[in-house]
Structures are given as C-alpha cells and as structure tokens.
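Ticket #4471: structure output looks truncated?

Reporter: J.K.
Steps to reproduce: submitted the chain below (417 residues) through the standard prediction queue, then opened the result file.
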Amino acid sequence: MAVEYITSRNMISLIYETMRLMNVGAAHHGRRVSYIMAKLLERRGTYERYEIADFMILAMLHDIGAYKTDDIRKQLTYDAKKPRPHSVYGYLFLKYLSPFDEQSRMILYHHMDYVKTKDLDYRYRFELELLKIAEMADIWYKAFGDKFELSMIGKYSGTKFDPEAVALFEETAREDGFFTKIMENTYHDEFNEYLDYVLLSDEEKEKYLKMLMYFTGLKNEAMVSETIATISVSRELVRKLRLNENDKNEIYYAAILHDIGMLAIPGSLVDAPRSLNDEEKNLIKTHVDIMEKMLKGKISDSIIKIAAAHHERFDGSGYPKALKASAMTSKDGILQLAEYVVNAMEEKPYRRAYTKDEIADSINNGIIDGKYDAIVADTFLKNYDSIMELASGKAKAALVTYQKLLRNYNQVYKSLE
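Returned output as attached by the reporter:
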C-alpha cells in the first residue's frame, strides 16, 4: 500500500509541487487561498485541526479546473470574467479523481454569488462561503496591494458574499494580520504547521497518487492513456516474472509518477507535428531530472530510482545518466520496456504507430545489442499477445472514470444556467 512509501505530509507537498510545474503563479494563488481559509476556520473555533487541514487541501486545489479550461497565465481574467468552465471541470475532476466527494461541490459553486447559494441544502455551504471570500481576497489583495481595504469585501456583504462569512473575515484579518504575512512572504511555516495535521488513509494516498497521474491529462489527454497503458503492461510483466509484492508495488508507483515531469515541458513541443531539433529534444529530456528532483525526499528512494531510469537502457545508450546494466535491476527494465512498447504502439503527431512486427523486431534487436534486460524483453515477446490484450483491457477499464468526467461536463455546465 502507498502508506509504506509516502507520508501524509509529503503527499500534500507533492501535490503542490506538481501544480507548480504546471503554473507557478496559479499554484501560489492556491497556497495563499488555502492559508486564508485555514485562518478563517481556526478563528471560527468549531473545527479540529485535521478538519482544517482537509479544507486547506481542497482550497489549494480550488482552481484545478483552470489548468484545463483556461489560460492560467491570466489569473485575474479567468477568475473574474469566465469562471464557470473551470469551476465545473474542477468539481468533476475532484469528485471522480480525488478523495473528495461531497466537498468537491464547493468547487462547483465557488464563483456563484451568495444570493444564488444562500438557500443551498448543502452540508458545507458555510465553508463554501469562506472559500469564496478567501479566493477573492487574495486576488484583490495581490491586484491592489497597499490600496486594498477590507471594505472592498464588506461592500458585497449580503450580495456577493455571506454576511456572517464577511464578518468572520474582517475580524480575522484585523486580529491575525494574515495579509501582512502574505505580503512579507512569512506565512509558509504557519501554513506547514497546519498541514502537519493531515491524516490520510491508505485509500486516500492511493487516490491522490493516481490524481497526480491524471494531472497530465489537464495538459495532454493522450498522456493519461499512455501512462495507464504503461502501468498495465508493467503489471503484466511483473505477474509473468513472478516478482514479490514489494517489487510489484514499487514498479506500480514508479509507473504512475514516471512522466510527471512532462508537465513542465511546453505543450508546443510535446504535440509538435514534426521532428524536433537537438535543442528541443534535450529540453524534453529534462523531464526526468525535473521528476526526480520533485520526488526526492517525498517518496521512497527505490521508487524514484525506477521512475528516473525509464529512459535508461542496459547498454548505456539511454538518458539522462547513461546508466549501464550493472547499475540497474529487472525492476528498471520492466518499466523501460513497458514505456517503450506503449510509446511505439501509439500514433504521434510526427509519426505513425508501429506495428506489432516492427515493435517485436526492435525489441529483438535490443536484446542482441544489450539494450534491454534480456529476461524481461524475452518474457514480453513470448507473451506479447496475452500481455497486450490484458493490459489493453485494464487500461480501458481505468479510463472509464476519466471518460465519465468528460461526458458529464456539458450536463453539469448546463445545469448551472
């Protein structure tokens, strides 16, 4: 289980760092909103620390839909002018792909005025109202700086914002001075102290790790299906090779996270309908180092090692470290082969998909040249059809939830009109 490989605190840190890969400014906004939310909940005095920590995670993720639906470089624009697309997508993303269930509805409504949400029969309606204020307070404070006044929020009491929530916000801002801490960038230690109370179950950790994989779909939907297929091929190879439970789990989590660094690579390169030049190829290769640095200290080193070696080859021809067989194990070889096979069988903007015969020939040549772990590669070739059939079925099943999200988007969007 994931509990053996990552702590609750490190899981949240990893989520934040992944968001930073996609957009630093938007990730910082989410962190500040999360902090303001925590201060408001604490001031109210009716929440345990672990409850505050849970709402902080949700607040940190409140604009996750914008990474898919908007140009998040224009932060004020997407929050002020056209919020419904990212509110709907973010709600569905968290509902289906995170541990949040009922709380995810807060994201659906977080840009609706109080006059439209005040009569909602919703368990977390007041927390929703606090999230609205926390978000807009951060946006307006960052926009107006020293000219920002609490009255800017108070002006909309009873219309845009819940009067009780406004009163709590004004009291907290005056008594705690959290805007000063945000301005001076000194709030981080306090923020981290709150998150020390995060208590995630094994199931929640598992869901969050999978959610990170689905983050790649916010940038490129094909990356999700390829990662799921890579996981599936890896698992079938593990089963055929009869590896122990610990090795199986390490390869599984490494497969989930191996391409997370691609979130830092410009989409224009990832989807380029042409061959890349050397400079562009080298930039794409940095995704491995990015992933490795981000995971370091947050998850088991053995998982990082496997994930960081997915483009290495046993003859030393891979990257980024040009490792050779003596520095790797069959666990590295499994993910390497699975990643290669899935990449080869998928059509790319710059080339057609390879056929089964072409893939088999390439692997056979790789065995002769010492490129792949011979036992892993031979096992795959001997069981090509059964491995690919089972992996394909599992990949399709794993995509069902993600596809359900996409199908439900228009239905939920129209329900808010």
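Triage note (M.O.): checked the attachment and the full token line is present. The chain has 23 helices and no strands.
Status: closed, working as intended.
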